[in-house]
Amino acid sequence: MLSVSDNELLTRVGPGTPMGNLMREYWIPACLSSELKSDGEPMRLLLLGEQLIAFRDTDGRVGIMEHRCPHRCASLFFGRNEEGGLRCVYHGWKFDVEGNCLDMPNVPPAQDFKDRIKAKAYKVVERNGIIWTYMGKRQSAPPPMYTIEILALPDEDRFTRVHQRECNWFQSLEGDIDTSHFGFLHIGGLKMEDVDPKTIHKWGVGDRAPDYKSTETEWGTMYAAYRPAEPGQFYYRFAHFLFPFITFTPNGSFEDQIACTFNVPMDDTHTMTYNLAWKQKTRPLETLANGDWIPGLQPDGKYLPNTTDWYGRHRLEARRDNDYFIDREKQKHENYTGIQGIGRQDQAAVECMGEIVDRSLEHLAPSDRMIMITRRRLIAAAEALRDKGEVPPTVDNPDLCRRARGGAFVAPTSVDWLAAYAQHLQTADSPLGLLNRLPMAAE
Ligand code: FES
Ligand SMILES: [Fe+2]
Questions:
Q1: Atom of ligand 1 nearest to the CA of 93
Q2: Which partner for 411 in 239, 259, 317, 420 could form a disulfide, CB atoms 3.0-4.6 Å apart?
Q3: Within 13 Å of residue 100, how many CA atoms lie on the same side as its CB?
Q4: Do the bridges between strand 80-82 and strand 62-66 make them parallel or antiparallel, or are there none, so unpaired?
Q5: Residue 341 near residue 189 (C-beta atoms within 8 A)
């Protein structure tokens, strides 16, 4: 459980909050490149509780700025995106992507003061098919971008999937590091004999109550769930939390599991998740021995049409107000939840707790240790920033993230879990050679 005050500190991300300030030290995925067209429609964008406008100018440059015009606060959403800037339709003031006021046409030239007006605009970079923004204090010299292997792959080698969740960002993130749910929510009805006897993941199907190891790392936290495999061996599933809102999940083979998820807070009660994965990574456990989908796991992620509303983008059709299309007959006879698709099942689980779960009501188990240490690590980092001005982990040295890799493997029981992890990093498929260059803190 968590005290009410710690829960507040952990979950609130608006301007001036300790966790919001921590988030603002990092680059934040704002939207997809494909969502903004040159001289196209400006887009409402909600990030860390701030109502912003994103637009792409005539030259293809992207601006992200406060949505209210600096003149009399009309929303720039209604602006005309034209000839190198966004023009407010109320009185015609025009701004470039950096927030400079280019034109003040309702003021006589002799009284023009456009040089003294600046819209609040945030630093932007565009790469990986994503528009990234930096909302912190170092606008003139922002910190370096993340060093995460999936981001270094060529764009054509990567899947990117975005969807919105109607719950707090950390609730969404906790779902990613709560490995214990996999054996129930997703494959609760599955038996070991149903799956390919050659897959190592059968050990996870046969034992739903593994032991756990977990530790703080330079980039955040990590855990391994482990259970007996062949005599003298453990089947391990490793996963990570990376500051400030990133997870590497364990679903798939460690050797080629190049993937990550960003849980980006839109505000305190809405989260945009970005799932990025290497197209060539092996599939996680999702089929039966005969090649059919495991019941309930066939993806079914239909989206609602986007709207221009603050909450109008990347919404799944299956949602809270239709109970995620739960099918009680299927729940009885076919799959554990009666909900179709891993994404929907996860969404239902993290949203049904309420928008911001009251963690003082919990009774955590040993299987929740990763969640406990991740909360502690985040709260400590937010407090250290607030009380001592301490720059949070990896902001200035993102290279530390190079040693993070999620996924499953089998290793001898005689080898320590971190030693087994280090050994597997040596042989992991790393087309970009990003791994193995930096020692771990424990080494
Ligand atoms: S409110 Fe935007 S120009 Fe007046
Ligand atoms: Fe899940």
A1: 3
A2: 420
A3: 5
A4: unpaired
A5: no
Q: Tokens 């932007």 correspond to what residue?
A: 124
Q: Which helix (H) or strand (E) holds 146?
A: none
- Residue 199's SS3 state is coil
Cα dist from 251 to 56, 73, 127, 276, 325, whole Å: 37, 47, 26, 13, 25
Is residue 418 helix, strand or coil?
A: helix
Cis ω before 228 (30° cut-off from 0): no
The answer to whether 186 touches 343, Cβ cutoff 8 Å, is no
Cα-only R_g, the chain: 23
Ligand 1 neighbour 227 (Cβ under 6 A): no
- Got the DSSP string for 8-27? HHHH--STTSHHHHHHTTSE
Q: Which CATH topology does 27-141 take?
A: Rieske Iron-sulfur Protein (2.102.10)
Domain boundaries, the chain: 27-141, 150-427
* pTM exceeds 0.90: yes
Nearest ligand, CA of residue 273? 2
Residues within 5 A (CB) of ion ligand 2: 346
Per the document, the length of the chain is 443
Model confidence over 220-255: pLDDT tens digits?
999 999 999 999 999 999 999 999 999 999 988 898
Angle at 99 between CA 95 and CA 101, to 5 degrees: 45
Tell me the mean pLDDT in the region 307-334: 96
The CA distance from 87 to 77, in Å, is: 10
**Measured in angstroms, how far is the CA atom of residue 85 from the centroid of ligand 2?**
43
- Ranges assigned E (strand) in 166-292: 211-216, 220-228, 233-242, 246-248, 259-267, 270-278
90 pocket-lining for ligand 1 (C-beta < 6 Å): yes
Q: Is the pLDDT of residue 194 over 50?
A: yes
| Residues 305, 57, 52, 352, CA torsion sign | positive
